[in-house]
Design goal:
Amidase; Amidase_CS; Amidase_dom; catalytic activity; two-stranded parallel sheet
Length: about 200
């Protein structure tokens, strides 16, 4: 095997790339919308935290989980995102959606452009494409804001420090509420983890 679909949400990205689905919904905690989209040549959008309600999604790490579209085009991603957004009072971290921007008019939108880290280790053709996109956003009326991201070398360690301990806790709670839905091998592992 010399190719991968990109891990979690990889099946969704393959379905869209192959034409088996017009769009798919992915979840992203550490790259699981963006990476499969990139590896399969489709569009993957990780929206602002809380913009798309997460009720009904099995949580991996509640403060890092996002739900977003995987589509063939940016226009399709915008349509699917518009359908997904909306206030859900039972969502753990709701955010009111921003009114849609007019066709080709991004006046009022602020876009943070990292000055550090992001462009430090990127392929030249990728950097060029990103800078062209940033210029296009400015041309459409968006206000560009230079952003310094402090301590970026610690981001992965912090992410794993937040993400790794949470799934067992979430799984234990879910298993306690609905023990009949927990496979025996998982239940055994959870009992052992609880005894530590």
């Amino acid at each position: 095997m010399d190719r991968v679909a990109g891990g979690s949400s990889g099946g969704s990205a393959v379905a869209v790339a192959s034409g088996a689905a017009t769009f798919a919904i992915g979840t992203d905690t550490g790259g699981s919308i963006r990476v499969p989209a990139a590896l399969n040549g489709v569009v993957g959008l990780k929206p602002t935290y809380g913009l798309v309600p997460r009720r009904g999604v099995t949580s991996l790490s509640w403060s890092l989980d996002h739900v977003g579209p995987i589509t063939r085009t940016v226009d399709d991603a915008a349509l699917v995102l518009a359908a997904l957004t909306g206030h859900d009072p039972r969502d753990p971290a709701p955010r009111e959606p921003h009114p849609p921007y007019g066709e080709g008019d991004l006046t009022g939108l602020r876009v943070g452009v990292p000055r550090t880290y992001y462009f430090d280790r990127v392929a030249p053709d990728v950097e060029s494409a990103v800078r062209e996109a940033v210029d296009r956003l400015r041309d459409l009326g968006a206000a560009l804001v230079d952003v310094d991201i402090p301590m970026t070398r610690y981001v992965q360690a912090i992410q794993w420090g937040l993400m790794v301990p949470r799934p067992p806790r979430t799984t234990r709670r879910r298993s306690a509420r609905r023990p009949s839905c927990t496979p025996p091998t998982c239940a055994s592992s959870l009992r052992r983890a609880n005894s530590c």
